[in-house]
Design goal:
The chain is mainly α. The protein has eleven helices and five strands, in the order αββαααααααββαααβ. It is 45% helix and 7% strand. Bound molecules: fe (ii) ion (2 copies).
Length: 474
Amino acid sequence: MISSERIPNNVNLSSDKRLQRALEYWQPKDLQWWREMGPQGFQDYHQVYLRTATSVDPKGWAHFEYVKLPDYRWGIFLAEPEHDRRIGFGQFKGQAAWQEVPGEFRNPLRRLIVTQGDTEPASVEQQRMLGACCPSMYDLRNLFQVNVEEGRHLWAMVYLLHSYFGRDGRDEAEELLERQSGNHDKPRMLEAFNAPIETWLDFFAFTMFTDRDGKSQLLSLSESSLDPLSRTTRFMLTEESHHMFVGDTGLGRIIERTCELMKESGFSEDVRKVGGIDLPVIQRHINFWFSLSLDLHGGEVSSNAANYFTNGLKGRAEEDKHQDDHILAEGVYMLDSVDEDGRPSRQEVPMRNALNEVLRDWYVEDCRSGIDRWNKKIASHGIDFCFELPDRKFHRDIGVFKGLYFDPSGHRISEEEWVRRHDEWLPSAVDKAYLKSLQAKPVFERGKFANYIAPPLRGVNQRPIDFEYVRTEA
Ligand SMILES: [Fe+2]
Ligand SMILES: [Fe+2]
């Protein structure tokens, strides 16, 4: 059951009146933000079958029920403390994890938390118009589930800011509600979170690829020496996996339907004639969101990343799986880079300075499994087409490849060729217009699905696929 406290939590909030008051002061501002910048058109008259985190018990941490979106209970939940948790990497390896923020690391820790925090409301803003063009009630519910949980992740970061960073933290928490995705004067901090998400293909590609960047960041923050940060992000990962499930299966269902339509139409080349989403346009969306998400991992050579690691603020994803000393005072990384003339070259860099790239390596492999699964699906329909992850040099705006032009296979090309062939590789205006025409008429009927997407294999929380996942209040 959801607790009756104003802010559900497992941090004994009522024992810290000052903190409780500060958060209760922030709460109505958050709700106002949600009403203005959250899902448009579904705030007042709709009830959504949503899961709400009520504890961190692995056997049953969530509760499902119908709620009106603004009545969702955003709570503060940290994974259970590990007895005698020790720092797992960096110069303080082996020492007790920190329960308070050390003064000398106050600024970089605040920066890490604010950067993570900024992405959470940003994605809600990016996705706010999608409800009105949904392909099914099931998908509509999944969209809102992702949205409310990103809202809870914002709470998670705001809790840390309020608890451990005093006045500065409270100011940062206010600013998290003031920046806006895509806003000229006050944009969100990271570029992928300023691109609008106007089509459901974009939404699924975003949750597949950009939420997966969230996973790599959360995994590396969950290694942090700052124990409350580690515990908060560990629990966020539980929710995050559903977001990637939505993206992975959403793309998978579109691909499935495309294959069916291709078969039905006698493998005609142009599946758009029968209202499907052609495989090349899906590839272009993969190229776009994957490359934007690569940028989110930061520059290849980074002294910030080195400092975060050395000081134990942010580790590598799955730190304990790395077979080394977890200190990395020595060690080098062979980095794919470019020479002064922009030609591809290999460069040796100290391992600590290459940690953004190490995380990016982890991320690329995590993405690849989805691609392999979809390719098997296409092959099982007897269709000769393979999705590929673009080379990591393609369409980059951060790091050594910025400002240079590469095709998706990683070959250096001229600017002229880039301009000429751009629309082969990234979603074009024609693609967007087509996708918008497909979703112009939303599907709100129980158990019905838009023509371009296959139904899921099963419903949510053991409910049937034709369950009324979103209902309108009488
Ligand atoms: Fe999140
Ligand atoms: Fe997410």
